[in-house]
Amino acid sequence: MTQKTKTKTMEVPVAIADRVQALIDGYEAKAKFDAELREKVNNFLAMDGLSCEMAVYSLPQKELLDTLRYVYELSGTNSKFVKSIITLHRDNPKKVLSDAQRASAKSMLFNLINDPSVVSAMKEQG
Fold first, then answer.
1. Which residues of 27-49 are buried (b: 16+ CB within 10 A; e: fewer)?
2. CA separation, residue 81 to residues 39, 61, 87 (Å)
3. How confident is the model over 103-107, as a mean pLDDT?
4. pLDDT, tens digit, for every residue of 16-55?
5. Which bin fits 76, alpha (ψ -120 to 50), beta or left (φ > 0)?
6. Please, what is the end-to-end C-alpha distance for the chain in angstroms?
7. I need a labelling partner for 21 at 20 to 30 A (CA). Which of 67, 78, 104, 112 fits?
């Protein structure tokens, strides 16, 4: 004896449906953004040391900080400087970094890109 299961559909309030769609859209946007950053970091890893350093040092501030955040998260390191500069940028994205902050961020990014933990994390991600 088999029983047929009836499927019932539910009407979802518009506010909940909109919120769920916003979450889905946000997730898809983050996945696309991370894929772009992964490609950028892979391109850096494919370069020789001097070319990579020149490419990192020519990044505009927003790209520099986005890439630094991505590589920092991959590396698993714990740097107060990177945390503070990423937080500063998140709280006030239009604020221009000082020359010293910018130079330090570029140096940190270049060093992290060449860190073995980042290289292996990038290989794991495919």
1. eeeeeeeeeebeebbeebeeeee
2. 25, 16, 10
3. 92
4. 888 889 999 999 998 998 889 999 999 999 999 899 999 9
5. left
6. 49
7. 67
